[in-house]
Amino acid sequence: MSAPLVEAVIDLDALASNLAHLTRSVAPAQLMVVVKADAYGHGSVPVAREAVARGIRSIGALDLDTALALRAAGVGDDVTVLAWLYPPGQDFEPAIRARIDLGVSSVAELDEITDAARRLSRQPGFLPPRLHLKLDTGLHRNGATAADWPALVSAAVAAERAGLVRTHAAWTHIAEASEEEDTRALERFLEGVAVARRLGATVAVRHLAASSAGLRREDVRLDLVRMGGHCWGIPSFDGVTPAQIGLTPVMTLRAQVLAVRELGEGRCAAYVSAGYGDGVPRNAAGRVAATVHGVRHPIARVERDHLVIETAGAELEPGDAAVLFGPGSEGEQTVREWGDLTGTLGDEITTRIAARVPRRYVGGSGPAAVAEAHGA
Ligand SMILES: *Cc1c(COP(=O)(O)O)cnc(C)c1O
């Protein structure tokens, strides 16, 4: 079988090593692996499965479709799966049946959840859903404002007394843009937790930090840290390589040299089988490189289905493998470098790799890896 024109190779062993490192780094806080946006292009189901196989007990899904897909794929209810963003009119019944933890930002959302819980409460096996009450500490994205917080908590406590929900966690999201702002958000959050407890809510788990602050600052880890980017080996703060913070990039984007044209004066242009239709940013041209046989060649143009690298004197041939980004082991740039050089985040680049690009999973603790370990 010939190699595909373009593929994203997802190294599950690199993922496992990142998760082990991050778990150790944030302990005794727990690590929640956030697999929203299809795990930033890495594939939410395979990534979540591998994470669970490696002992992760907490997954952040963002939306309920993702959360339910994880349960359907065998992520059992010994694993916390948290959703927190809902379209208006969301039907919460499937989520309650599947024991999804529910982030709640407003009394209106809480009402929709308790309505669904009431409908299900007479059925055998009904378990009141666990709530993560969300406070807005300055990001103004979602979450209850400080003014609305006591009303949200009191309504949740009342619903708990009616046997419809369980109060469980309090959380917020911080900007991770400045230390002072994050410190203020932490203070506001801890005040909110105190208020919630005074009003009778159980706050067994407090969480607010994501990749950046969670790795840098012990004081913001509290009971749980929610990480996406760092799990995939993409540093989310400036001035470090993945290796410097103990991480390995998980995704390698590979394509092939399709044709080589002489340009004269010893220069040639090589056509490589990945374009903006595959998610390569158009402004990669003139900024980043593709690597062939360990040598980086600047990308000169990005078209829909291919890109062009221009090179002086290099001997490139059709069929040569071109690595766009990866862990760096073949001389290639990392996706974080791509992000820096194209004015975006590495996260954004992996997330935008198109659905048409096949994902190939290597390593990991799945049946194939287990068979290999046993010499099969
Ligand atoms: C996306 C997201 C995260 C993870 O962010 P990273 O910076 O990728 O670690 C954590 N929490 C919430 C609420 C998010 O939406």
Q: What does this protein structure show overall?
A:
By secondary structure, the chain is an alpha/beta fold. It folds into two domains: about 15-230, TIM Barrel (Alpha-Beta Barrel); about 250-370, Beta Barrel (Lyase, Ornithine Decarboxylase, Chain A, domain 1), CATH 2.40.37.10. The chain is about 30% helix and about 25% strand. It has helices at about 10-25, 35-40, 45-55, 65-70, 95, 105-120, 150-160, 180-200, 210-215, 335-340, 345-350, 365-375, and strands at about 5-10, 30-35, 60, 80-85, 100-105, 130-135, 165-170, 205-210, 225, 250-265, 265-270, 290, 295-300, 305-310, 320-325, 360. Strands 2-3-4-5-6-7-8-9 form an eight-stranded parallel barrel, surrounded by six helices. The model has no long low-confidence stretch (mean pLDDT about 95). The structure holds pyridoxal-5'-phosphate. Pyridoxal-5'-phosphate binds near residues 226 and 227.
Number of strands: 16
Let me know the largest β-sheet.
Answer: 8 strands, parallel, barrel
**CATH superfamily (homologous) name of the largest domain:** Alanine racemase
Q: How many helices in DSSP terms?
A: 12
Shape-level CATH architecture of the largest domain: Alpha-Beta Barrel
Distance between the termini: 22 Å
How are strands sequenced across the largest beta sheet?
2-3-4-5-6-7-8-9
Low-confidence runs: none
Q: What fraction of residues sit in β-strands? A: 15-25%
Task: Describe the global form.
Answer: elongated
Bound molecules: pyridoxal-5'-phosphate
User: What's the level 1 CATH class of the largest domain?
Assistant: Alpha Beta
> What's the mean pLDDT score?
95
Please give the radius of gyration in angstroms. 23 Å
CATH topology of the largest domain: TIM Barrel
- Following the backbone from N to C, one meets helices and strands in this order, namely EHEHHEHEHEHEHEHEHEEEEEEEHHEH
Oligomer: single chain
Helix content: 25-40%
Q: Which class best fits the helix and strand makeup? A: alpha/beta
User: How many structural domains can be distinguished in the coordinates?
Assistant: 2
